[in-house]
Amino acid sequence: MNVLDTSIANVSLPSIAGNLGVSPSQGTWVITSFAVANAISVPLTGWLTQRFGAVRLFTASVLLFVLASWLCGFAPSLELLIAFRVIQGLVAGPMIPLSQTLLLSSYPPQKAGLAMAMWAMTTLVAPVAGPLLGGWITDNMSWPWIFYINIPVGLAAAGVTWSIYRKRETPTRKLPIDGVGLGLLVLWVGAMQIMLDKGKELDWFHSAQIVVLGAAALIGFVVFVVWELTEEHPVVELRLFALRNFSVGAITLSIAYGLFFGNLVLLPLWLQQHMGYTATAAGFALAPVVSPMVGRNVTRVDPRGIATVSFVVFAIVLWMRSHFTTQADLWTILVPTILQGAAVACFFIPLMNITLSGLTPDRIASASGLSNFVRITAGAFGTSISTTLWEDRAAMHHAHLAERLSAGDAVTSDAWSKLGAMGLSPDQIGAQVSRLIDQQAFTRAADDIFLGSALLFLALIAVVWVTKPLRGGATADAGGAH
Question: What three-state secondary structure class fits 172?
């Protein structure tokens, strides 16, 4: 349910934006607001667990997620929808780390790897089901139902969890919370995300608002780092970045996830806005077929090798997508998606295994929370950056294409004459030509983003081999990619 909500809204964005009377680029706030709020709340899981207990916290998190989902469905405006998505992201933070904690407490240590492989299947199925389910619901019902479907699932999950675990509550104790660190975290992450989302609309640093947001993000980040490194009970354990496997693994995972998720948002926007796809068809074209076997085999094979295979496949997939044209049929679009399933299956688990390799058990929880925070934040940033670059590149391609359609161009004059012979007025011809230019410009812009992402995935191969993971290290938590 949690992972599903990171992708289910992707194919519904045009419908949500149209229904609420905003642009599709503004509609991406529905995704990024959830991701940022979720990233901010994840590091608090450890403190909240010790304060309230793992079972109570997990059950409350699920129930509050259900309530927030219900509010999202009823939102009458974009502003309220974003506010409710922020609440949904905040309460969702403890769900995934604690789902691992409770699951591992139910299995003996020798079966921990099998338990996490089973757990990882849900995190691999959800990105597949999200676009398909979101598209079908949007076309056959209405977009609020992408949130309403969480209600019966969440109530059932909370009820079953409480019935099984209520007598197995973890010990609680009062600990001081790093309020200053938390405030600084909210400040710099929030300012950075708003700057990325509003930058295109406000013409970037020509706007005083963007300058202020940029300064707040930079200063907030610097002060946050200094504070967390000197605080006795930091909200984020930044000292983990002194460890090679953790720092390189977390950064590699975050950049790769930002690229992956940014393209995951961009593709359905292009398909629906410029290729005439319905939400269901876009979801079908976006849903990869994945294999859960990596979770079981990651300890038998060097995770760097598995990650390398994943990055190569991602690069091939994105290179294929960089050749998309306005004449691309469904099969042409679907083939890279099918190949991407192999890359997704080889992506999260090995990289998380590398990130947690060699850590002592008492540091696993903090490391998992911090790596998830960095990854989720990178996903939100990746969404904003990819959509902004897409519009910028489209404007450039539009200008270049328009320059070629001069009045003296023989091909243009011939096309103009043929459209006139069909009974179209000059205004209708101009609108038709403008629509075709837009379609070509945004298609070429998407191709640019796909090609650039492919090159970055190849560059990450060299980075991942800087790590030196221990064989079988941190197996129990290897599934924590989501």
Answer: coil
Q: What pLDDT sits at residue 159?
A: 95
**Cα first-last separation, the chain:** 12
How much is the average pLDDT of 94-100? 82
| Domain closes at, from 191, 215, 234 | 234
Same domain for 168 and 59 = yes
Instruction: Please enumerate in sequence order all residues whose Cβ is within 8 A of that of 62, keeping only pairs 6 or more positions apart, or say none.
Output: 95, 154, 157, 158, 161
Q: Could you tell me if 280 and 209 lie in one domain?
A: no
How many residues are given for the chain? 482
Number of helices and strands (H, E) in the chain? 22, 0
Q: Is residue 406 part of a domain?
A: no
Residue 405 lies in a domain: no
CA 342 to chain centre: 18
Same domain, 136 and 45: yes
Measured CA to CA, the distance from residue 252 to residue 260 in angstroms comes to: 12
Residue 93 burial (CB count, 10 A): 26
Least confident piece of the model among 79-93, 316-330, 408-422: 408-422
Query: Residue 189: which of 215, 219, 211, 221 has the closest Cα?
Result: 221
Place 125 in a pLDDT band, splitting at 50, 70 and 90: low
Please tell me the distance from the alpha carbon of residue 34 to that of residue 56, in angstroms, as a whole number. Answer: 23
Range of the domain at 204: 178-234
Predicted confidence (pLDDT) per residue in 453-465, tens digit = 999 999 999 999 9
